[in-house]
Specification:
Strand content: under 5%
Distance between the termini: 78 Å
Strand order of the largest sheet: 1-4
Number of domains: 1
Radius of gyration: 24 Å
Oligomer: single chain
Shape: globular
Number of strands: 6
Number of helices: 26
Largest sheet: 2 strands, parallel
Structural class: mainly alpha
Helix content: over 70%
């Protein structure tokens, strides 16, 4: 069975676009107005999208159902696999009692919730986005903030908003690599253009987060710390994206901002520690002091996680794993059955690359953390079952959201909306980030949004006389602010923040901020296109097919050398810190 996509089913571009946007508007209505639970809203949205695909776009019923099933399967693997592994790892630290030591450690740096949010949600979350991506950063950081005593809604919401700054360079820069592959714009040029847009947001974002948490006056009270966090992150993000490439900005900026803020807090103290109103009194026992060895052991699950996801993100290691275990298949009845408007069949290959998947790196980190944290194997097995039960409804939500994304893309609904925006002519650079925002809202992934709309962005820009790197980079940058309201991201954050069934609250918490930041980026891109052309990097377009050849063995060997050095240094540190038997040391607080 073959079927050709219809982009303008109603023979009127405006009417077709209005009908096409109905499933998306339904999600906004269901979560903001009707306040539905996440899984209910996503399942109904899938149903509406299927009906429009069949009865308006003329998509055969069989293909519509197969497309939805393919998306749901992708939602289960690799997305849900990442979420399950990440939450399982965090639950191990809690069950073993190691998270209590982490609480003590964080309190020794600062017990102020504003500063803890900057360290964990903004900086550590950015670092995790750079190494793993695909939901892991929000899952881990939201769970950590809740464990520290944050209000669950604020913990999840703040982590979603904080995750905007690093998304463009997530998972070792894969969103920009994909954008380069589909547009033939060199990835270094895209990295530079994004690196001349997002650092502006990165400077503002820490202040924005603290104002959101505590109000303007309370944010001004910690303004020096906010500036250290935001400026250090933005400078490192700008430098690495413009002079190194798209692979490491999140890793470098995340680590760098943590180091800068921790050092700063050694010399600068907040005048009045701030906690959430009506927050339960801290349960940390201040009469106990933990040694360095115990602190390192408590953090060991996250240290192992960091090392593992960095290793899994390296291209040579990925290539090795994919060579050892390469399990993929053409989705039955769907592969090459849908023809796009250019006459090209759409491939639907499901890649079950379980060894190379980021979720596997996180799951192995969790397994290694079991003996490191002192948890019994039988307790860990029971804990894994409890984690699966905890994530039942988020798994349903994520699977249905990805089914929603696939049916919108395969039916042509998404392209209908995109082409309507592409007809805005001179104003297109202003609306270019909206396409990226829309793509991430639908798919939950900046990578997928770039694959979906990258070519359209480049072609439209060229037709109106604008440098294509501007609009391609705008697709990347606009996508980052769509991440915080993507139903997939909402489901992940709700699961980690113990808000299952309250996804509508979380959506309403973030949606306004998504639009504000989107407007901000739209204005920046419009100015870059016409007023600040000197910001555009110089580059030469790649020949067709060149962008796909991204393997760089010399870079891979360098990464492996750095990784080996880090592992050896960490092993030596552990040995030195644990020469003496660790035990809690009574500590008398000084006045």
């Amino acid at each position: 069975m073959n079927w050709t996509q219809v982009i303008d089913p109603l023979k009127n571009a405006t009417l077709s676009a209005i009908v096409a946007v109905l499933p998306i508007l339904f999600i906004f209505w269901a979560l903001i107005i009707k306040k539905m639970k996440g899984y209910q809203a996503s399942l109904l949205a899938v149903l509406i999208a299927i009906l429009i695909a069949i009865f308006v776009y003329g998509m055969p019923v069989q293909l519509a159902l197969l497309s939805t099933a393919n998306g749901a399967l992708y939602g289960l693997f690799p997305i849900c696999w990442i979420v399950v592994a990440a939450v399982f790892l965090f639950n191990i630290t809690v069950k073993s009692g190691q998270f209590e030591i982490i609480k003590h450690f964080m309190a020794s740096i600062t017990s102020d919730r504003r500063l803890q949010a900057l360290l964990i949600a903004f900086s550590f979350g950015s670092f995790l986005e750079g190494t793993a991506g695909f939901g892991a950063p929000v899952a881990i950081t939201a769970a950590m903030l809740v464990g520290l005593g944050f209000n669950p809604l604020y913990a999840a919401g703040i982590c979603l908003i904080a995750n905007t700054a690093p998304v463009a360079f997530g998972a070792i820069g894969i969103p920009i690599t994909v954008a380069s592959q589909v547009t033939q714009v060199p990835e270094m040029a895209i990295s530079q253009m994004v690196g001349r847009t997002l650092p502006i947001l990165s400077i503002i974002l820490p202040f924005y987060l603290v104002v959101l948490m505590a109000g303007f006056k309370k944010a001004v009270d910690v303004l020096p710390a906010i500036l250290v966090s935001g400026v250090s992150f933005a400078l490192l993000q700008w430098f690495s994206s413009n002079f190194i490439g798209p692979s490491l900005p999140d890793v470098i900026a995340g680590i760098g901002s943590i180091i800068c803020l921790v050092i700063f807090l050694k010399f600068w103290k907040v005048k009045q520690v701030w906690h959430f109103p009506h927050e339960p009194a801290p349960t940390i026992n201040t009469t106990v002091h933990y040694s360095s060895g115990q602190i390192v052991r408590a953090w060991s699950p996250f240290i192992v996680l960091t090392v593992m996801v960095i290793a899994w993100g390296l291209q040579p290691i990925k290539a090795l794993f994919n060579d050892l275990v390469k399990t993929e298949f053409a989705f039955p009845g769907l592969h090459n059955a849908i023809i796009d408007k250019a006459g090209k069949p759409l491939g639907h290959i499901f890649k079950f690359n379980y060894l190379a998947a980021s979720g596997t790196a996180i799951f192995l980190s969790a397994l290694l953390s079991i003996p490191l944290s002192g948890l019994k194997l039988t307790d860990a097995i029971q804990l894994f079952g409890k984690t699966l039960r905890q994530l039942l409804f988020p798994i349903i939500t994520i699977a249905s959201v990805l089914g929603f994304a696939y049916i919108l893309n395969d039916s042509g609904i998404t392209i209908t909306i995109a082409e309507a925006l592409a007809k805005t002519g001179f104003l297109f650079p202003f609306f270019a980030p909206v396409l990226g925002w829309l793509g991430v809202f639908i798919t939950g992934s900046d990578t997928s949004a770039n694959a979906l709309f990258g070519k359209l962005q480049a072609t439209t820009a060229t037709s109106i006389g604008v440098d294509p790197v501007i609009t391609v980079a705008a697709n990347v940058s606009g996508g980052v602010v769509g991440k915080m309201i993507s139903p997939q991201s909402i489901a992940v954050a709700a699961a980690a923040g113990h808000l299952v069934g309250e996804e509508s609250k979380l959506f309403r918490f973030t949606v306004k901020h998504s639009f504000i930041m989107l407007l901000f980026i739209c204005c920046i891109v419009f100015a870059q296109a016409y007023a600040f052309k000197w910001l555009i990097p110089r580059y030469n377009m790649l020949a067709a097919g060149t962008a796909a050849a991204i393997a760089d063995l010399s870079k891979g060997r360098a990464y492996l050398f750095v990784l080996a050095s880090v592992l050896i240094a960490f092993a030596v540190l552990i040995f030195l810190l644990n020469r003496k038997k660790d035990s809690p040391i009574p500590y008398t607080a000084t006045k």
